[in-house]
Amino acid sequence: MKRTIFFVIVMIFTMSSTIVIAADRKSNSVATENKLSEVELSRLTNRAEEIRNLDKSDMTVKENRELKKEARDIDKNVAKSGGTIYIGAAALILIILLIIVLV
């Protein structure tokens, strides 16, 4: 009896913690998507090309770090506007199993 009560309590805490972890603050703002317009996308792409074509041998370490940071920020912004969907390994296995079972 004590063992079953213990397992029930553990299951309750486990289920409630996954709900709390899944409730990400960033995911609540689904309506505010960061889509870049074509003009902004081309401007960012041109700036990334300029950074790649710069002669970095005359730059100081600080300037080089700033350019790398700017390039990373540009890459993040472009990736956000791409609408990429990431699927975890467990979700992929579950989808494959469902396809196999249903077909």
If you had to describe this structure to a student in words, what would you say it looks like?
The chain has 103 residues and is mostly helical. Helices cover 70% and strands 0% of the residues. It starts with a helix and ends with a helix.
Biggest sheet statistics: none
The run of helices and strands is: HHHH
Averaging pLDDT over every residue, what do you get? 77
Let me know the number of strands.
0
What is the rounded Rg? Answer: 23 Å
Low-confidence stretches: 28-32
In angstroms, what separates the terminal alpha carbons?
43 Å
Contiguous helical run count? 4
Helical content band: 55-70%
The class by helix and strand makeup works out as mainly alpha
User: How large is the share of residues in beta strands?
Assistant: under 5%
Please write out the topology.
Layout (H helix, E strand, L loop, with lengths): L1 H21 L15 H16 L7 H21 L7 H14 L1
